[in-house]
Specification:
By secondary structure, the chain is mostly beta strands. Helix content is 4%, strand content 40%. The longest helix has 9 residues, at 753-761.
Length: 852
């Protein structure tokens, strides 16, 4: 300012109100009156607030005050954590501090959170214990000049002198501790890891450490017990029964002999229900369990065929290996047990139908239980026209065996449509209505699935982390079910519906997949539960439930999206429960805002209401993951078709009853789009667990599908089966997506000729169209042939509600299916031999789209 003709500094104040509280205006300066006017780490000296020297203990502070060592400030003794950070959200203050005996202690998870000169000890920040080796006792060294702690060390000459997860080596010049002789070899911890990709060279990740490995081109170059995968020797073990000697089976990753009969305490039998035609065969499989929980798939047993009165039946013959041959019509109960074992027998119910001599027959069964459904109306059309309604429809109701006979049908093809009139508890249809268009199959079997409109099947599971082998601040688990229809799985539903979960210190909830369980261990504050239960969805039936769980450093867990979960599941332990019964239930009102979206039936806490899957009534499970995923498979993935950006890969066990069961999961983001729109994907080193608990009775394989990280509308997948899980799999080229348009007024599907020709050229021979309306679904099967001729959806019986095929605004889903060699569309729709109930084990590839 200009004063007396010269420039002078402008005064800080002209009156007291220009100064902060506790300050007075004296000679143009704001001056403090006492220490209370200054910040916590300052004192008032000559009217100025002067920063005090950082305290290191209470001795540096005025009487009655304590030292908070990280900030170096003196403050009043605390009684609770919120006293340590006044003005801060109490939840955040409780995460940052713990009050112990009046002292505010800063909580920590690692040294980095404490800052320079401090280390994390027992969950709280403390001053570093040393700056050089001279600060430490004899036999110890100082880890760092800035945040050091004294550690004992062991001089060594070779790795044999060191313990697990350590190796004998000298420090490099860049990592040598202060004051230590860098030439001295000591036992040092191996580099830490979560995944094999965290390790360099030929090292592999096990027990959260990079284990030294060796380069290889085949397994003969690896040590005993190791196998060559992706050019590195990794721990081996059997990968299927074909790897074991006669009389042994591969279970829980090792070849084992059958247990003595006296050690068997229980058994499981699969399948438990089947429909056969005279002359047909099927195989019953027995799994034995011993007192220690071990399982073994038995190659032989004692089987007895009984009629409804319990007398021996000659309707079937059953060999000691479980091969059933249908001899004459009837309903048969086959009892099975291991020879010499004192266990209760397990029973399978078989419906044997006479061979069809003339006309046509349609058998309707429940897709989940496989039992025949009586009272289903079936509308048949002999020699159906290519367009327009059936000129002479015939309606027949299924009998107790689920059979509808059409003896007068003599045409080369016939169409059928089955609709059950049984309602669900909420009034909607219990079952899908299902049709087959112009099939030459004469003995058609149609499984009716549960209606998914406003209904779902799933589980409600707890996951224990007490026995996992990994370490970290975040405990993370996820559970899934085996899939009877793998074409329905995509990134939007793999881990269930999205839940909104609160996080301490954040005002906004974050989305977390429903089947995830998560908690964080935050120092002395204990464990903060983020999501305590796993709520997952799946398909009704006798499924296998699988859980993956582990502990991760918070630095690696940036979010909980499905693709990120897949990236880390290989680092987790796993558990499974075979032969789990999963039921389908109508949606129920959300009474407690279970999914955290603010909607529930309680008007005192929610702004609106909604219905959710009936999670509380779903099958309850408890998982204890404790087995490491020791198997590895190199998976070579073809370019993803245009529109896809993520590849999902799974090691699986396949069975006709349980479906496709994942025992290892991974994902890989594709690269930049090529000129044709496809995206390249680097090979994936897939880790998986060895099947046990009855799941080892299935067939090993690898399942891969191309998906979009942001949409579940389309997917294209392949399944590769083998007698033993391969060490390297090249996934076949993904099928292109099917495209078509649907006109409800004429019930006509008009395929894209280009799309249909491409699919037929790639080997797809069966198409499935799903029309979803307001109350239910109509599922339609037909042969996929080049040319893309229009398809008319067959007229359907009345059923429990209106036919969705005639509804305006019906949603359309199309699936193109490529079946295993030797299995045709006609053969899959026919009852004898392989039929739609064996769909999971004969599906080679598929693509699915929702064009409307």
């Amino acid at each position: 300012m200009c004063a007396g003709g010269s420039c002078a500094p402008r005064p800080e104040c002209t009156q007291a109100m220009d100064c902060a509280e506790g300050f007075a205006c004296t000679e143009g300066r704001c001056q403090c009156g006492s220490d209370a006017a200054c910040a916590a780490n300052q004192s008032c000296r000559d009217g100025r607030c002067v920063t005090a020297a950082a305290c290191t203990s209470a001795a540096d502070c005025p009487a009655g005050q304590r030292c908070e060592v990280v900030q170096g400030v003196c403050q009043a003794p605390c009684t609770q954590a919120t006293d340590c950070a006044p003005g801060v959200d109490p939840r955040v203050a409780s995460l940052l501090y713990v009050c112990r005996a009046g002292d505010c202690l800063r909580q920590c998870l690692n040294d980095q959170l404490c800052g320079a000169g401090f280390i994390c000890e027992a969950g709280t920040c403390a001053r570093a214990g040393c700056a050089t080796r001279a600060d430490c006792p004899s036999g110890q060294y100082c880890t760092s000049a800035t945040a050091g702690r004294c550690l004992e060390y062991q001089v060594c000459g070779s790795n044999a002198e060191c313990g697990p997860n350590t190796e004998c080596r000298a420090f490099t010049s860049g990592t040598c501790p202060p004051g230590f002789d860098c030439a001295t070899k000591i036992c040092q911890e191996l580099p830490r890891c979560l995944l094999d990709s965290d390790c360099s060279g030929a090292a592999y990740c096990r027990d959260s450490h990079c284990q030294p490995g060796s380069v290889c081109t085949d397994s003969s170059q690896c040590a005993s017990g190791f196998t060559c995968v992706a050019s590195r020797c990794v721990p081996g073990g059997c990968r299927g029964h074909a790897d074991c000697a006669s009389g042994e089976a591969c279970t829980d990753g090792a070849c084992r002999p059958a247990p003595p009969a006296a050690n068997i305490v229980s058994i499981a039998l699969t399948p438990r229900v089947a429909t056969l035609v005279v002359g047909d065969t099927t195989r019953l499989s027995l799994v034995a369990f011993t007192l220690d929980g071990a399982s073994f798939p038995l190659s032989e047993g004692n089987f007895s065929a009984l009629d409804s009165s319990g007398s021996p039946s000659g309707a079937v013959t059953v060999s000691s290996s479980g091969l059933v041959t249908a001899v004459s019509a009837g309903t048969v109960r086959v009892q099975a047990r291991p020879a010499g074992a004192a266990v209760s027998p397990q029973e399978a119910t078989l419906t044997v139908l006479p061979a069809l001599e003339s006309g046509r027959r349609l058998i309707v069964v429940d897709a989940a239980s496989r039992r025949p459904i009586a009272g289903v109306e079936v509308l048949g059309c002999d020699a159906p026209p290519t367009s327009g309604p059936c000129p002479a429809p015939v309606t027949v109701t299924t009998d107790a065996a689920g059979v509808a006979l059409f003896p007068g049908f003599t045409g080369a093809t016939a169409s059928f449509s089955a609709a059950s009139g049984e309602p669900r508890a909420d009034g909607r249809p219990r079952y899908d209505r299902v049709s087959v268009v112009s099939t030459p199959a004469r003995d058609v079997l149609l499984p009716l699935g549960e209606n998914p409109v406003h209904g779902a099947a799933g589980f409600n599971a707890g996951i224990s982390f007490n026995e996992v082998h990994s370490s970290g601040e975040l405990s993370l688990g996820v559970s899934v079910l085996s899939a009877g229809d793998p074409t329905s799985v995509d990134l939007s539903n793999l881990f269930g519906e999205s839940f909104l979960v609160p996080l301490p210190g954040l005002t906004q909830r974050i989305p977390v997949p429903g089947s995830v369980v998560a908690s964080a261990s935050l120092g002395l504050a204990g464990t903060t539960e983020l999501k305590t239960r796993s709520y997952g969805l799946g398909q009704a039936g006798r499924r296998t439930a699988v859980a993956f769980a582990g502990k991760l450093p918070l630095s690696r867990a940036t979010n909980l999206r499905a693709t990120d979960l897949l990236a880390y599941t290989g680092a987790m332990d796993y558990a499974l429960q075979a032969f789990t019964s999963i039921t389908h239930l109508p949606y129920a009102p959300d009474e407690t805002d279970l999914d955290g979206d603010g909607l529930c039936s309680d008007t005192t806490r929610c702004t609106g209401s909604e219905d959710l899957p009936a999670y509380s009534r779903f099958t309850g499970l408890t998982h204890r993951p404790r087995r490491g995923q020791l198997r590895r498979t190199e998976v070579v993935i073809p370019n993803l078709p245009s529109g896809f950006d993520t590849a999902v890969i799974a090691a699986v066990e396949l069975s006709s009853e349980a479906g496709v069961m994942p025992v290892g999961l991974a994902s890989q983001t594709a690269g930049a789009a090529q000129p044709d729109g496809s995206r390249p994907v680097p090979p994936v080193l897939l880790r998986s667990g060895a099947p046990y608990g009855g799941a080892e009775a299935g067939t090993p394989g690898v399942w891969a599908f191309a998906a979009s990280a942001t949409s579940g509308a389309s997917v294209s997948g392949s399944i590769v089966r083998a007698a033993s899980l391969p060490t390297r799999v090249s996934v076949p080229t993904f099928l292109p997506l099917p495209t078509a348009a649907y006109t409800s007024a004429s019930r006509t599907l008009t395929p894209s000729v280009t799309s249909w020709n491409a699919l037929a050229g790639a080997g797809a021979g069966l198409a499935r169209v799903t029309l979803t309306g307001a109350q239910g679904r109509h599922v339609v099967f037909f042969a996929l042939v080049s040319g893309g001729a229009a398809i008319r959806v067959p007229d359907s019986p009345t059923g429990a509600s209106a036919d969705p095929a005639g509804e305006t605004g019906v949603s359309l889903e199309i699936a193109a299916l490529r079946l295993a060699p030797g299995v045709s569309a006609e053969g899959l729709l026919d009852t004898p031999g392989v039929n739609l109930l064996q769909f999971p084990v004969v599906l080679d590839a598929y693509s699915r789209s929702r064009p409307q």
